[in-house]
Every structure is written in C-alpha cells, then in structure tokens.
Amino acid sequence: MALIAIENVVAGYGIGPDILTGLSLDIEPDRSYCIIGPNGAGKSTLLKAICGLLPPRRGRVVFEGNDLAGLRTDQVLQRGICFVPQDRSLFPDMTVTENMRMGGYILKDRHAVEERIHEVFDMFPILRERRSLPAKTLSGGQQQMLLLGRALVLRPRVIMLDEPSLGLAPIVSKQIFDSMNALKRAGITIIVVEQNARIGLKFADWGCVLDLGKLEFEGPSETVLNDPRIEELYLGRQGARTGTSG
Amino acid sequence: MRENVQILILGLTLGGVYALMASGLTLIFGVMGIVNLAHAAFMVLAAFMAFFAFKYLGLDPILSIPFVMPAMFLVGVVVYRLLFSRALADPHKRGVMVLVTFALALIVEGVLGFLFSNIYRSTRPSYASDAILVGPFYLPEAQFYATVLSIGILGGLWAFLQYTRTGYAIRATMHNRTAAEVVGVNVDRVSMIVFGIGMALAGASGSMLSFLFSFYPSKHWEWVAILLALVVLGGMGSLLGALIGALALSVIAAFVSAEFGPTWSPVTFYLALFVILLVRPQGLLGKKPEF
Questions:
Q1: Do residues B29 and B236 make contact, with C-beta atoms less than 8 angstroms apart?
Q2: Is the pLDDT assigned to residue A240 strictly greater than 50?
Q3: CA A10 → CA A55, A60, A212, B164, distances in Å?
Q4: A227 burial class (0-12, 13-18, 19+ CB within 10 angstroms)?
Q5: How is chain A split into domains, by residue range?
Q6: What is the pLDDT of residues B11-44, one digit of tens each?
C-alpha cells in the first residue's frame, strides 16, 4: 500500500482557476521523491494540498489508509507529515532555540521537545552555536538548516520541502542536500520540489514530472533525468510561460 | 520647571490608560491583520456596562472590571465566529474586513444610541474629582488609579504572551502567520482568542473611560482616531510600540493643552499621525506591512 495516495486531486486558490487539474500519484514509504516541472505546473500547490494548507476542491489524499480530507494543518502534522514552505517561514525575531521550540508546538511533553532539540543540535552544530541569536541574523543556508531542524523536532514520517536550494550558493545548497541525505538514511520519506531538476534528481530515488496540474510522467531519477521529454518541457516551452511557481 | 513637571505627570497618568486602550487594537491587528475600527465603539459599550452597574448596583467602576472583561471576551468570541472566522482564511477577503469593522462600529453606536440616547454620561465614584498631593505636585486620583491599573493589566498581558503556550502561539502568529500554521498552530483558534482578549482590554479601558471622561454613543469616533494615532506611532501590531506611542503622545498633548488651551490637545494626535505617516510609515517599532 502506498504511504500517501493522491487521487485525482483538483485544487486552486480563492476563486482562482484550478492549479491542480486531477493529479494522481502514489508515494511509497521507502523512496525519496523529487517533483519537477515548469513554472505554474502546480508543484508547490501539490505540497500545500497534501499538508492541509490548501484543501482540495475535489479528489482526496490518503495517508496510511486514512483520508486526510477536512483536516487542518496541525492535524496533518500530528499524523507525521511535515511541510517546509519555500518562503523561509521562520519567526525572524525569535531566537534559534525558540524557533525550534515552536517546531515542537503540537507536542505536550516539554521535556521531550528539549531533548529532541538537543538531538537536532547534534546534527547541525552551527545551530547550537547560534542558538541564542534571532533567526533573522542567520545566513540563508543556516536559515534553511533551521527550517529543516525545526521540522525534525516532530520526528515526522514524511518531510516535504519546497525549493530548499532557492537563493543559496551551490556549495551551501549541497550542504542542505547532504543533510537531507542523512534524513533519508534515517528512514524519513522526503518529497522535495526543486526548480533545479539536476540537483533534485541526483538527490532523490524517484522523479515525478508535473505539467499543467497533472502528473506528466514518473520513474527512477536516472531515467527521468535522461528522458527527452524533460528537455521539451524545460527548454521548448518555458520561454512562452510566465508567472511564479505554483 | 515645577509647572512642567506637573504637566508631565498629568500626561503620563493619562498615557497609561491610552496604552491599555491601544493595546487591544494593536494586538488584533498584529494577529489578524485587520484594523478594528469598532474598537472604541466596544469601549463605549463597556463604559455603559460600568455606568449601569454603578448606577443600579452601586458597583465601583474599577471593581466592575473583573465582570466587564470576561463579558467583553465572550462578545469578542461571538463576533469573531460570526463575522471573521471564515473570511480570515482567504487573503483576498482579509483586505475588505476593515469595512466590516466599520459597519460593526455603526451598529454598536446605533443600538446604544437607540437604547440610551445620545446624552453625556459619566460614573462619579468618590475619587472621581479628588487629587493626591505628592510634595508640591498633585496627582488626580482617578487618573492615577486608572493608569496604575492599566499598567498592571498590560503587565499581565505581557506575562501571558511571554510565558504561556497560548502566548507563544499568539506571538508566533504575529511574527509569521504561515510559519505558525506550518508548525501546527491552529491560527483560527488563536485569532478567536486574540479577538476576545482585544475586546476584554477594550472592556477594561471602557470601564475606566466611564469615570475619566464623559461619554455618549457616538463619542467613539473621536477615540478611535486618537487610538489609531497612538498605534501607528508605535508601529501597527507592536505592543511595546503602543505603550511608547501612548505615553509620548499623551505627554505631548498635555503640553500642547497647557500652552495653547485644551481645544488644541486632540489636534496633537492628528498632526502626529500625518507626520508619522510621512516620515516613518511603519512606526517606531513596527515591521513593514506584509499584507
């Protein structure tokens, strides 16, 4: 059985048009995924529809056999799906430690939260060094680490990241992907949306290509990377498209 | 010199109450992104509660605060559920919600005017017109009690925001609504609680308003304009900013009043509003608007 089954999901914002136009995809537990596609294909929208930030208009998302319909983000989080959005959504004036504590907000046991924060600091020593500084004083890469660390406080089953390398220098973005590799080995299912298909597919086991709100095709990363259709999607038509990534 | 210190004292003792009035407004804006134009109308509603409790039950307006605050909290929760809950989820609607608060202000004013007519009222507890002498200076008793109490309530609010789990969630939502949602804060519930707290703060300041000033249903327009000036000076959504803005402007207004006559004192606030918006639109401690 798939860990997450996305069945014919249609979703969009406010009174706007459908961004996802009937997308179906199975997420298997023992793989990591990279979702790619041109601007406006619905990559971010898909993540938001899974985590409850944007309830689907039609279709359903099933996690471990349970329909997630009607659940709020905090309830989806309780079940073990964590979302790290693209806009560096930290609490800029709170310290690194306070940000981490907010990561464990839904846990009642404060001691467990403090313990887990220590574990995360062991993984990212730079965060321990900066623990009493406001999050806004960190560099872009450190902020991305903090976002990752904050998500880990919950020990989630699934982490979904929206463009973690956005705006980072190549060497910094490599560090982020290295950390994500460590999480992958620790048994967390990772779904990453990545504008840079090459980096994303190198990291992930499985590639999913979205276009116009639907799954265009999927397969092992190697195969997807060498598929001629990629070139057509990215080079052949990208020039004709405008707008932000959806 | 002595005269100036006296004016400073008068300004500061009113400033504390202004700060309490402004705190609810800025808190609601900080979390919901909505300027609640009905804030002062709810203060006047609370002033009426305190007035009638004093008139018919003989309850001192300061002692009525523990009853008025929870009552206004409930009013806030009901209003939030009816008007704001669903609209807040949609960023497009959020911008229009200020018009809903405008309508709310008109409705509260209209109902109060219909029930109690637009005559001047005020509660007159024994201390209303007394003063305490401190050396060569005199402290108007009513203003002094009101400001001490206001600072006390603000201190309690600060401790609540700083040390409780709900307080953490409120601050997180103020900092970054999406991020709060992503870590599992139920932002709808937080907004409801904050709207309730904002109304409770309006309730406490309304009770005090009842013996500090005379009031009538349409008086709230004057108040909300002054409060907006305070909140904009401090920075929309910043509690500390509201406190600083309130103290600064009420001291300046006291000096203007002493120098040019009391007629000019309200002008201070409007003039300040113009200057702030020209020079530093985000206010002293405010963050740049995100919405």
A1: yes
A2: no
A3: 9, 9, 12, 39
A4: middle
A5: 29-51+72-207+216-240
A6: 999 999 999 999 999 999 999 989 999 999 999 9
**Are the Cβ atoms of B179 and A83 closer than 8 angstroms?**
no
User: What is the rounded average pLDDT of the residues B191-196?
Assistant: 96
Burial class (CB in 10 A: 0-12, 13-18, 19+), A45: buried
Please give the pLDDT value at position A226.
87
Domains of chain B: 2-279 (1.10.3470)
Q: Is the pLDDT of residue B231 over 60?
A: yes
Residues 105-134, chain A: which have Cβ within 8 Å of B? Answer: 105-106
> Measured on CA atoms in the order B57, B61, B66, B70, is the torsion positive or negative?
positive
Burial of B227 (0-12, 13-18, 19+ CB in 10 A): buried
> Comparing C-alpha atoms, which of B231, B224, B194 is closest to residue B84?
B194
3-state DSSP call for residue A9?
Answer: strand
Select the more confidently predicted residue: B126 or B208: B208
Tell me which residue has tokens 């989630």. Answer: A156
List the CATH code of the domain at A29-51+72-207+216-240.
3.40.50.300
Q: Which of A54, A82, A91, A113 to mutate to test the interface with B (most CBs of B within 10 A)?
A: A91
Residue B288: the pLDDT is 55
Identify the band that residue B206 occupies on the pLDDT scale cut at 50, 70 and 90: very high
Residue A77's CB: how many other CB atoms inside 10 A?
24
Q: State the Cα–Cα distance between residues A200 and A174, nearest whole angstrom.
A: 11
Inter-residue contact B53 to B185 (CB < 8 Å): no
Give the integer Cα–Cα distance in Å for A223 and A220.
5
If DSSP states are collapsed to H, E and C, what string results for chain B? Answer: CHHHHHHHHHHHHHHHHHHHHHHHHHHHHHHHCCCCCCHHHHHHHHHHHHHHHHHHHCCCCCCCHHHHHHHHHHHHHHHHHHHHHHHHCCHHHHCCHHHHHHHHHHHHHHHHHHHHCCCCECCCCHHHHCEEEECCEEEEHHHHHHHHHHHHHHHHHHHHHHHCHHHHHHHHHHHCHHHHHHCCCCHHHHHHHHHHHHHHHHHHHHHHHHHHCCECHHHHHHHHHHHHHHHHHHCCCCHHHHHHHHHHHHHHHHHHHHHHCHHHHHHHHHHHHHHHHHHCCCCCCCCCCCC
Place of tokens 């932002």: B187
Nearest CA in chain B to A150: B183
pLDDT in tens, B103-121: 999 999 999 999 998 899 9
The CA distance from B166 to the nearest CA of chain A, in Å, is 10
What local confidence, expressed as pLDDT, does residue A246 receive?
44
| A73-77 average pLDDT score | 93
**Strands annotated E in A12-115:** 20-27, 33-36, 58-63, 66-67, 81-84
- Determine the residue type at B97: M
pLDDT beyond 70 at A3? yes
- Count A/B contacts: CB-CB distance under 8 Å: 62
